Structures are given as structure tokens and as C-alpha cells.
Task: structure prediction
Amino acid sequence: MFDDKNHAHAIATAFGSLGGFSAAPRWWTEASQNAAVQLFALTVLIWQGGGALDWSYSLAAAIVFTIAMRMMSSMHVNAPVVPIEVVTAPEENPAEEQPAAPTEYYHNY
Result:
């Protein structure tokens, strides 16, 4: 159905919807609590960015992305607790000076 579309471009555009923008006006923040408004806004974003100006493809990509994000938001991963072993350096005698490391030059690499 959408074989000729750039799916990576559409998903990259949808990913951009997750944040990193300046704060929205209060009326938009309140309106965007509605799932239909969220889906419409994501559809418009994909349509202009990665949806190749195709409304049906943009809506399909927005629905798939929204479902995937909702499914992932309910997942929780418990990382195993691994004890950290503290390794201390052996004490050095300040009287013994270490020779300086040779100078490396990075030209002609």
C-alpha cells in the first residue's frame, strides 16, 4: 500500500514530535491533552516532513507511531544490580620520578 514511501523519513519526523521545542501556549497545551488533537498534530508534522505530502500515509504512520509509543510507555525494564568493585591505585613514591612520555605528533597520519 505504501511501498513507494520513505518510512525512515516519516519515523524521523514523528520522533521529532517527542520534544525539544519551546513551551507551547496554554490554549494549545490544554487542547493537546485530547488524543484526537495529538494524532492530528502528529499527522500534520509527518505530512510536511516525511509523509511526502500524502495525508493517508501520514495518518497511517502517525497511528502506528502513536500505538508503538503507548505500548512502550507501559513497559518497564529492571536493570540488574551489579556490585561495583573499587580498585585503588598502588601508592606511588613521590621521590621516584617517572620519565616523561614521548611527544606524539599527529601530522602526516
Summary: The helical segments are 7-16, 26-31, 35-49, 55-73. The CA atoms of residues 47 and 56 lie 9 Å apart.
